[in-house]
Amino acid sequence: xxxxxxxxxxxxxxxxxxxxxxxxxxxxxxxxxxxxxxxxxxxxxxxxxxxxxxxxxxxxxxxxxxxxxxxxxxxxxxxxxxxxxxxxxxxxxxxxxxxxxxxxxxxxxxxxxxxxxxxxxxxxxxxxxxxxxxxxxxxxxxxxxxxxxxxxxxxxxxxxxxxxxxxxxxxxxxxxxxxxxxxxxxxxxxxxxxxxxxxxxxxxxxxxxxxxxxxxxxxxxxxxxxxxxxxxxxxxxxxxxxxxxxxxxxxxxxxxxxxxxxxxxxxxxxxxxxxxxxxxxxxxxxxxxxxxxxxxxxxxxxxxxxxxxxxxxxxxxxxxxxxxxx
Length: 326
Ligand code: NDP
Fold this sequence. Notes:
By secondary structure, this protein is an alpha/beta fold.
C-alpha cells in the first residue's frame, strides 16, 4: 500500500506571532495555508505575562491571550491549524518536502519558517539533572516563578531578559540572587538600574555557577565561584533560573538554508526570502536583533506576501492543489 502524500500550497511551520500573522495574510490571499504549531503552541509569548508594547492593546494583554486571539484570527480565514512537529525537510527540488512527526510527508509549493528560538542553558550536569526532574531549574520566570513564592532563588544572566526576569521574581520571592559573570551588565541601563534598585535582589558580579545543589529530587542551593578570586560559596535556593539568551530553532534546515554562525537563518535583505526559492523565513528564527512580537508579526506579513508573489510568478508551472494523492 503506498503512503498518502499531502500537497499543500503554503505550509507554515510555527505558531508564534510570526507564524499566525503569515497565516492571516496567506489565508486572505487564498493560499489555503496549513500551519503546524510545533512543540510549544503559541511560541515563546505563551511564557510571557503582560505584553504592553504590542500596538492595539492600550491596556496590555497577556501573552497566552494574545496568541489565542491570533490563532482565532488565522482560523477565521480558514487557516488549517494542526498539532504536529516538523522533524525533517528536503528543500532540494522545486517542490519542498516536509515530514510531520517523522511519518507524514507533505509536498509544498511554499514553506514559511516561523520556528522561533529556544532558551539556552549553562549545560552543567547538575542543571540538566534538576531541569529534567522538574525539580527547580527553569528558563522562564514568568512560567515558573509562581512556584517559588516567598522562597529564595538564583538567576543567571546579565542581559535584558535576566533583568526582566529577576525583577519579575523579586515581586514573588523573598530573595533573588543574580549571578553576573563579568563586572558589568549587558542589559540596557534602564533595565540594569531597575534590578540594582530593587531591595531584595542581590547582584554578585564576576560570579559563575559551579554546581546546582540538590537532594536528588529538588534544588536546595547553588555553588558559585568568583572568577577573579576563585573563592567558592553556596547560596541556599529552591529555584535556579537561567536567562542567558536563546538559540534559534533551525537545526532541521541547516543542510539547505544559509545560517549565520549562531544558527539564525539568513534572509535576503529587506525580504523574507531565504537562499532557497519558495522557502521564506519570519520571526526570531532569522532575527537576533529585535526579537519582538511586533517585529515577528511584521516579518510574518512579509513572508506571506513574498510567498504569494512567488506563487503568482510560478503558477503556470505548479500544479497547485491542496488535495491528496497516492
Ligand atoms: P543577551 O544575549 O542580550 O544576554 C545574555 C546574557 O547572558 C549576557 O549577559 C551574557 O553574559 C549572559 N551569559 C551568556 N552565557 C552565559 C553563561 N554561560 N554563564 C553566565 N552568563 C552567561 O540575551 P537576552 O535574552 O537577555 O536578550 C536578547 C535580546 O532581547 C537583546 O537584544 C535584548 O535587548 C532583547 N530583550 C529586550 C527586552 C525588553 O526590552 N523588554 C526584554 C528581553 C530581551 P555576557 O554579558 O558576559 O556575555
